[in-house]
Amino acid sequence: QVRLVESGGGLVQPGGSLRLSCTASERTFDASGVAWFRQAPGKERDFVANINWSGATTTYADSVKGRFTISRDNAKNTVYLQMNSLKPEDTAVYYCAGRHFWGTAQEMGVTQDQYNTWGQGTQVTVSS
Predict the structure, then answer these.
(1) How far does CA 12 lie from the centroid of its chain?
(2) 106: part of which helix (H) or strand (E)?
(3) Which strands sit side by side in the sheet containing 68-73, from one edge to the other?
(4) How do residues 41-84 score in pLDDT, each as one tens digit?
(5) I want to staple 24 with a disulfide (CB 3.0 to 4.6 A). Which of 29, 98, 100, 123 is the partner?
(6) Do 71 and 80 form a contact (C-beta atoms < 8 A)?
(7) In which element (H, E) is residue 51 found?
(8) Are 5 and 119 in contact (CB under 8 A)?
(9) Percent of the chain with pLDDT over 70
């Protein structure tokens, strides 16, 4: 079973940037699509972005389009989420999730039940 570990969270002022990392424990990660979800206190866990196994295709939630960028480096078994122009409403625990899948990001899905491997989460707080 592949393990995913998130890092890079923290406290940032509105308008600032953070880069989250999701690192996998095994090389088979390069056959997996990966997504980022987030969960704010008292709210459901929502889809943020995903990327397919090769990095060629991505999708984003409307709320982060144009501000967040997902990318991956399969040589390092790592997926990144670059977050710019952060807003207080971006405050949440961010989780990465993976599934073994050879299709496009659009085919991978945006719901939690479509992913079977999860990290422990990393807190992002946007506040002045």
Answers:
(1) 18
(2) helix 105-108
(3) 4-7, 18-24, 78-83, 68-73
(4) 999 999 999 999 999 999 999 999 999 999 999 999 999 999 99
(5) 29
(6) yes
(7) strand 45-51
(8) yes
(9) 100
Query: Which residues are CB-neighbours of 62 under 8 A, at least 6 positions away?
Result: none
Query: Looking up tokens 């961010």, which residue turns up?
Result: 94
> Which one-letter amino acid corresponds to residue 70?
I
Identity of the residue numbered 107 = E
- Read off the tokens for 106: 């659009």
Band of residue 30 on the pLDDT scale cut at 50, 70, 90:
confident
The pLDDT tens digits for 4-21 are: 999 999 999 999 999 999
Structure tokens, 116: 């079977």
Token code pair at residue 20 = 């989250």
